[in-house]
Design a protein that fits this description.
By secondary structure, this protein is mostly beta strands. The chain has one domain. The protein starts with a helix and ends in a 7-residue tail after the last strand. It is about 10% helix and about 50% strand. Strands 1, 2, 3, 4, 5, 6, 7 and 8 form an eight-stranded antiparallel beta sheet that branches.
Length: about 160
């Protein structure tokens, strides 16, 4: 699998997971301020595991409801997702949903997502773990279905910079 396709796949999956956090009824509140997030993902296709990818990002959080936490940037206009289905538990919340992304070249990605999102009791950390099943159609060459495993953690690191307000 070429690097551009892997990067596009990861961007699509991570962008789609941002909608997971739009569910409501969070189990606790987060500390407002600057947060650092670390993402780890692996992709399995045709029985092979693609080398893991890691990313980090910082973000100023002002809405302290973890259910509204924008874990990734706003979804691009070519990605459309169903409303998340949410089940709360003492550990956080379990979210499932599906998304479809249409590309100008005619390729269509269909994603089925299943995640557990768990904020800490003190509101200084949050984690999520889950899987995304992806199927791509409309490609000139067949692309096998993929299973993407994603885990992420976030922690409060301090005050937001003055420029972020």
């Amino acid at each position: 699998m070429n690097f551009n396709f892997r990067r596009s796949l990861l961007c699509l999956v991570l962008a789609a997971t941002s909608t997971l956090a739009l569910a409501n009824q969070a189990s606790t509140h987060l500390q407002p301020g600057l947060w650092r997030f670390h993402y780890h993902s692996t992709v399995q296709m045709d029985g092979r595991t693609i080398p893991s990818m890691n990313q980090s990002a910082q973000q100023c959080i002002t809405d302290t409801d973890p259910a509204k936490l924008p874990l990734m940037p706003k979804l691009p206009p070519n990605i459309h997702c169903t409303a998340p289905t949410l089940q709360t538990s003492t550990k956080g919340y379990h979210v499932t949903m599906s998304c479809t992304a249409s590309e100008p070249n005619g390729m269509v990605s269909q994603l089925g997502e299943d995640f557990m999102i768990a904020p800490s009791d003190d509101g200084n950390q949050i984690s999520f773990d889950g899987t995304v099943h992806q199927r791509i159609t409309g490609s000139a060459m067949p692309i096998p279905a993929a299973l993407v495993k994603i885990s992420a953690t976030g922690h409060h690191v301090g005050l937001c910079p003055a420029s972020a307000h």
